[in-house]
Design goal:
43% of the residues lie in helices and 15% in strands. By secondary structure, it is of the alpha/beta class. The protein has two domains: 2-99, Rossmann fold, CATH 3.40.50; 109-263, Rossmann fold (3-Layer(aba) Sandwich). The strands form two sheets. Strands 3-2-1-4 form a four-stranded parallel beta sheet, sandwiched between helices. A four-stranded parallel beta sheet has the order 7-6-5-8.
Length: 273
């Protein structure tokens, strides 16, 4: 998912002249966008400077290093919003930098409207419910718009963290920030998910189906299961935008699924790695 938007953002910036040889790409990230930018920047010969909260998963830090990205670590209490403000200020004071600005860049939405949405419809022409996490808002807006053009009655459900909790890759409206590219008119509704439920859903998917998804994907799956109980028939599409390997080494992966209630109790804190 993030590889798509990074490709669109970088290539559009190159076409418009905003990004030129010798410039540095800046971005705020908690993981996937930063990894994709570091990878593409390395391939294209751009320096990449990432602004990230200090509490991101250790394996994500390692990947930033592997691809040669410079990282400015930010106070975790500010979350990705605080990192974004730091990146924006740094880019504004340096004309040799291009701020990718995934939360406000229309190329983010375009990537999903032009690629992800059509790919879904090619495989499943009749979509009744779309469930996607709300991080930047690009996925749910771009895919949702494309699906609504094909079927105006489709329900588009956004997934966000329970207030005060962290689900890697998702944004909580209750924190007072709504991404500029999110078109709330596309949303039919939104549902909140506790971090423990997201984590447990991702573990269950691995155990039962062999699909190793990440925490935001687990949150979307948790919501999809709730929606499946609401409707008698129809097709539910769930966007699973994160893989689970980045969370290896986090102690909760080692707990048995039978210990779900204990896991919920141990994950009451906002940050769990």
């Amino acid at each position: 998912i993030k590889d798509r938007i990074v490709k669109y953002i970088v290539e559009e910036a190159e076409r418009s002249g905003k990004l030129r040889s010798g410039m540095t790409i800046m971005e705020a990230t908690t993981g996937n966008t930063g990894i994709a930018l570091a990878m593409l920047g390395h391939r294209k010969g751009y320096r990449v400077r990432l602004f990230a909260p200090e509490n991101i998963a250790p394996s994500i830090r390692t990947l930033f290093d592997v691809f040669g990205a410079e990282v400015v670590w930010c106070d975790p209490r500010g979350g990705v919003r605080g990192a974004m403000l730091s990146a924006e200020a740094a880019a504004a004071s340096d004309s040799s930098c291009f701020f990718a600005n995934q939360f406000a860049n229309p190329a983010n939405v375009a990537a999903h409207y032009e690629t992800t949405g059509p790919e879904i419809l090619a495989d499943l022409p009749q979509v009744d419910v779309l469930i996607a996490g709300v991080g930047t808002g690009g996925t749910v807006t771009g895919v949702g718009k494309r699906l609504k053009e094909a079927n105006p009655s489709v329900k588009v459900i956004g997934v966000e963290p329970y207030p005060g909790q962290l689900v890697q890759g998702l944004t909580s409206f209750h924190e007072g920030y709504v991404p500029p590219i999110l078109d709330r008119r596309i949303l039919s509704g939104k549902m909140v998910v506790r971090s423990a439920d997201a984590f447990i859903a991702s573990r269950e998917l691995l155990a039962r189906e062999g699909i190793f998804c990440g925490i935001s994907a687990g949150a979307a799956l948790h919501v999809a299961r709730r929606w499946a109980k609401r409707i008698h028939s129809g097709n539910i599409v769930v966007i699973m935008a994160d893989s689970g390997w980045k969370y290896l080494g986090v102690e909760h992966w080692d707990m048995a699924l039978s210990a779900a209630e204990e896991l919920r109790e141990r994950m009451e804190d906002t940050f769990w790695w």
